[in-house]
Amino acid sequence: MKNSFYKKHLVDITHLNIEDIRILFKRASEIKKIVELKGGDNRLQGKIMATLFYEPSSRTFSSFVTAMQRLGGGIIPLFSMFNSSAVKGETLEDTARVFSSYADLLVVRHPELGSVRQMARYSSVPVVNAGDGIGDHPTQGLTDLYTIQQKFGDLNKLHVLFIGDLGHYRPVNSLSKLLSLYPQIRISFVSPKEVPIQDGLKKYLVSKKVKFIEANSFENILANVDVLYVTRVKKEYMTESLYHKIKGSYVLTNIFANSMKNNSIIMHCLPRIDEISHDVDSNSRAVYFSQQVRNGMYVRMAILDMILRKN
Amino acid sequence: MKNSFYKKHLVDITHLNIEDIRILFKRASEIKKIVELKGGDNRLQGKIMATLFYEPSSRTFSSFVTAMQRLGGGIIPLFSMFNSSAVKGETLEDTARVFSSYADLLVVRHPELGSVRQMARYSSVPVVNAGDGIGDHPTQGLTDLYTIQQKFGDLNKLHVLFIGDLGHYRPVNSLSKLLSLYPQIRISFVSPKEVPIQDGLKKYLVSKKVKFIEANSFENILANVDVLYVTRVKKEYMTESLYHKIKGSYVLTNIFANSMKNNSIIMHCLPRIDEISHDVDSNSRAVYFSQQVRNGMYVRMAILDMILRKN
Amino acid sequence: MKNSFYKKHLVDITHLNIEDIRILFKRASEIKKIVELKGGDNRLQGKIMATLFYEPSSRTFSSFVTAMQRLGGGIIPLFSMFNSSAVKGETLEDTARVFSSYADLLVVRHPELGSVRQMARYSSVPVVNAGDGIGDHPTQGLTDLYTIQQKFGDLNKLHVLFIGDLGHYRPVNSLSKLLSLYPQIRISFVSPKEVPIQDGLKKYLVSKKVKFIEANSFENILANVDVLYVTRVKKEYMTESLYHKIKGSYVLTNIFANSMKNNSIIMHCLPRIDEISHDVDSNSRAVYFSQQVRNGMYVRMAILDMILRKN
Question: What are the record keywords, sorted (chains A, B, C) (predicted)?
Answer without folding.
Answer: Pyrimidine biosynthesis, Transferase
